[in-house]
Amino acid sequence: MEVVNALGRRKTAVARVYLQDGEGKIMINNRDYKEYFPTAILHYVVEQPLEVTNNMGKYDIKVNLRGGGYTGQAEALRLGIARALVQVDPEFRPALKEKGMMKRDPRMVERKKPGQPKARKKFQFSKR
To answer: Sheet harboring 59-66: ordered strands across?
Structure first.
């Protein structure tokens, strides 16, 4: 099998995923994913598409991650892995779609407006 590549995004994080046959190594920016992500919850998020499709330990995954924070990066990586698995075998799509892993999360940070301290917060109103 040749290398399959896919793209995953979340907020400002972008994950470029390269998937090929192997023994289950997941390397992010030339580091192991358990070393890259600090918590077990983020490890679980990254492994989700592989667990749903019963492919743990079958593919080596190399990832270039840029932008965002840890959570955004982990969720971008989850989408990228799911898209790469669907390219390998289109029969994985219904199971991944049912778990909501085939959709990019469209929520972004709302911009700050002028005359306000934050996006929605207002300065204290004084009547007199």
So the answer is: 4-10, 13-21, 59-66, 26-28, 31-32
Residue-wise pLDDT for 31-74, tens only, equals 999 999 999 999 999 999 999 999 999 999 999 999 999 999 99
Q: Which two tokens stand for residue 9?
A: 């995004």
Among 28, 11, 24, smallest CA distance to 62 is for: 28
pLDDT band for position 1 (50/70/90)? confident
| Topology (CATH) of 4-98 | Ribosomal Protein S5; domain 2 (3.30.230)
Q: Are strands 31-32 and 26-28 parallel, antiparallel or unpaired?
A: antiparallel
Tokens 């991944």, residue located: 96
